[in-house]
Write a structure and sequence with these properties.
Elements: E1 11-14, E2 17-20, H1 21-36, H2 54-57, E3 60-70, E4 75-88, E5 91-100, E6 105-116, E7 119-123, E8 127-136, E9 139-150, E10 153-165, E11 170-179, E12 182-192
Antiparallel strand pairs: 1-2, 3-4, 3-12, 4-5, 5-6, 6-7, 7-8, 8-9, 9-10, 10-11, 11-12
């Protein structure tokens, strides 16, 4: 369950002007997050020997295993995914069949398009707008907004997905789930052909 922090409004007087203490508190809390929200660097894992063609890799049958960890480091869920991809030129229809450790099942369908060399766009029924992806060597980074369900609540979040192809058959994915730029969870997935 997600914590929903709140800040109570308090006022103090400076001369004849009323100044909100919240402004000071918010600036002190938000500034470190803004400094920490830089572009994640994947240059340490980029390989010149291994290339990653997203549409080629996910064409056909793929199996994946993953886990969700909340922002406090607590393991929330594990899951298995059966993926079926059908490639048509520069498009991929990717069907994902999730089975979670608590028995819940979920189906998601993506249409991923290679827009130009090294760039991708993706869309599913849950995405808000279009997922944008960029390939560098054996890595692909996709960022997008989506809606996830937590209990009875639908929550709009941002995903920052980073895929690394470690060899011909294995891709490792690490996704940060963000709300208002603050990380609320991590998802790690291992794909195998």
């Amino acid at each position: 369950m997600l914590c929903r922090p709140f800040i109570r409004v308090r006022y103090f007087w400076v001369g004849k002007k009323k100044v909100m203490l919240n402004v000071v508190i918010v600036c002190c809390l938000v500034f470190p997050f803004l400094i920490g929200c830089t572009d994640p660097n994947m240059k340490n894992v980029v390989s010149k020997e291994t290339t990653f063609e997203l549409l080629e890799y996910f064409d056909g049958e793929t199996t994946a295993w993953g886990l969700v960890v909340d922002r406090f480091g607590n393991l929330q869920r594990t899951f298995k995914v059966k993926l079926t991809g059908k490639r048509d030129n520069k498009k991929l229809l990717l069907k994902e069949y999730f089975t979670y450790n608590d028995g819940e099942r979920e189906y998601r369908e993506w249409v991923i398009t290679k827009t130009k060399t090294g760039s991708y766009e993706g869309k599913s029924k849950d995405t808000i707008g279009v997922a944008k992806g960029k390939k560098i060597g054996n890595t692909v980074r996709m960022v997008y907004d989506t809606t996830i369900s937590i209990g009875e609540t639908d929550l709009r979040v941002s995903f920052d997905d980073r895929f690394v192809k470690s060899d011909r058959k294995v891709v490792i994915n690490r996704a940060e789930i963000l709300k208002w730029g603050i990380k609320i969870a991590d998802v790690t997935i291992f794909f195998s052909k």
